[in-house]
Specification:
One of its GO terms (molecular function) is DNA-binding transcription factor activity. This is LysR family transcriptional regulator. It holds the Pfam family LysR_substrate. It comes from Massilia litorea. With about 325 residues, the protein is of the alpha/beta class. It folds into three domains: about 10-90, Arc Repressor Mutant, subunit A, CATH 1.10.10; about 105-175 and about 285-310, D-Maltodextrin-Binding Protein, domain 2 (3-Layer(aba) Sandwich); about 180-280, 3-Layer(aba) Sandwich (D-Maltodextrin-Binding Protein, domain 2), CATH 3.40.190.10. It has twelve helices and twelve strands. It has helices at about 10, 20-25, 30-35, 40-55, 70-90, 110-130, 145-150, 195-200, 220-225, 245-250, 260-265, 295-310, and strands at about 60-65, 65-70, 105-110, 135-140, 155-160, 170-175, 180-185, 200-205, 230-235, 255-260, 270-275, 285-290. A five-stranded mixed β-sheet has the order 4-3-5-12-6. A five-stranded mixed β-sheet has the order 9-8-10-7-11. The chain has a two-stranded antiparallel sheet with strand order 1-2. Strand 1 and strand 2 (about 65-70) form a beta hairpin. Helix 2 packs across helix 3, helix 2 (about 20-25) crosses helix 5 and helix 3 (about 30-35) packs across helix 4. The radius of gyration is 23 Å and the shape is elongated.
Length: about 325
């Protein structure tokens, strides 16, 4: 069996080494881990040496893309995270999180749209409230989000996630409506996009999973299925930020995107917004976290900061 207890951790291993392991497996870099832990690089290297000796495994291997965990390190991830979550969540929660003096890196699962919507304002708030903290963003496939949040590699996932894994906690931040973007050079579209034009033209859909049914605006097809309305999907992509450039070079394509993004895309000379001619219910932007970190002081503080930053965000 691979449990930490069977490895003799509780009776033989210095528990002060666990935060080093936890940080290294998240940031994959000794110098960044040292900065987050407020330790010297030599101290982190020495701790890693002790961990390697104890577990009889190199744990991390140097590669061109950073330090990659070995299979043994990945086996240890869940039990180490569990021990640390217990300590942080049940024993230290009363001490709270001192944002003004804290030095750590917060990880956020975000799409490219999420980075455009969330990051500028969140960075400003974080730098003001926690000047010693930094941010990391991760683009994670939908089926891996729960594991990434459970391991602590990311603290939160932000966005409008479809097919959210069961067991994650969530909180709505704000709601957004959709609007359609078209190429200005397409003269067949006037100031108003008709319903017939909408369903006759070819569409770009954004879906993290690559499946049409998981697209951000899939509700359009769901809501109009009984009204004999079915879109002609030409391209499905996981990236929002490439959509205006594709439409710029392909004037016959259109896309329906969140209004906030469309407003930014309309700064492209070739792109303009038109109201979507079918009913599209607003979609909610939420933050998600794993129950393991429900009472973690740092996670609680971050959730509160995110909520306060976007709570009054209305269209």
């Amino acid at each position: 069996m691979n449990s930490i207890h069977n490895a003799g951790l509780t009776s033989h291993l210095d528990l002060n080494l666990l935060p080093v392991f936890d940080t290294l497996i998240r940031v994959r870099n000794v110098s960044r881990a040292a900065e987050e832990l407020d330790m010297s690089q030599s101290a982190v290297s020495h701790a890693l040496k002790r961990l390697r000796s104890f577990f009889g495994d190199p744990l991390f291997l140097k590669t061109g893309s950073g330090m990659q965990p070995t299979p043994r390190a990945l086996e240890l991830l869940a039990p180490v995270s569990s021990v640390l979550a217990t300590v942080r969540g049940e024993l230290l929660v009363r001490e709270g999180f001192d944002a003004a003096s804290a030095r750590r890196s917060f990880g956020l699962c975000l799409t490219d749209m999420g980075e455009l919507i969330f990051l500028p304002r969140l960075i400003a708030q974080l730098r003001r409230a926690a000047p010693g903290c930094t941010l990391r963003t991760l683009q994670v496939p939908m089926h891996q989000i729960q594991a990434v949040l459970e391991s602590g590699e990311a603290d939160l996932a932000l966005g409008s996630l479809h097919s959210v894994p069961e067991g994650l906690f969530q909180q709505q931040l704000f709601a957004r409506s959709f609007v359609t973007i078209v190429n200005r050079s397409n003269r067949t579209i006037g100031e108003v996009l008709s319903r017939d034009q909408f369903f006759a033209m070819e569409h770009i859909l954004v879906s993290l999973s690559g499946r049409i049914e998981d697209a951000y605006d899939a509700v359009i097809d769901e809501g109009n299925a009984q009204g004999n309305g079915s879109r002609r999907v030409y391209l499905t992509t996981p990236h929002f930020l490439t959509v205006p450039m594709i439409i710029e070079q392909n004037p016959d394509l259109i896309a329906t995107v969140p209004r906030e993004l469309a407003t930014k895309f309309a700064t492209y000379k070739s792109i303009r917004m038109v109201e979507t001619p079918v009913r599209v219910p607003p979609f909610g932007i939420r933050q998600f976290w794993h129950p393991r970190f429900q009472h973690d002081a740092a996670n609680m503080w971050l959730r509160k900061l995110v909520k306060e930053t976007f709570d009054t965000d209305v269209e």
